[in-house]
Input
Amino acid sequence: MRARRICVFCGSKSGTNDRYRIAAMEMGRLLVQSGVELVYGGGSVGLMGVVADAVLDAGGTVIGVIPEALATEELLHPRVSDMRVVPTMHARKALMADLSDAFIALPGGFGTFEEFFEVVTWSQLRFHHKLTGLLNVDGFYDPLVLLVDHAVQEGFIKPKHRELLVVEEQSEVLLQRLATESVVDESKW
Output
């Protein structure tokens, strides 16, 4: 199965390393080159705005999903024609998951971590069979991967569930894996 839509979780800020912004632009362009639509949090700020702008500038399709409380003129991306305004963050995450065939986390903060780990947990619990990937830009996710590996060592995460995280440093490699594989191998349970 080939992924038609990939959800990208990322920061509403751009971070201190310019490489994060460059990686978000690169990911947006690669999605379009691969014929994959972007599903994302609907914002115009930070890395969210960067990845959406890159997809739009390359002629791709973007679906934004934003809760009413954040849909102010400052945050709502004005160029995204398919913007879904939902009542709550829970509704946002559920719709983003329903619309997407796979998930990628670029650098971000609490919201990015929470959204990403929720979809990983849903995969672990067999609520879906979609792949989840971390784009480890300049080692951004190294501490998180170490924490996950520590949880495996301490018996809180099964080794086969650790494999649900696809971690790559290069956008092309990560996107290739998620766009072509796109379904979790059932032996991961």
Summary: The two ends are 20 Å apart (CA to CA).
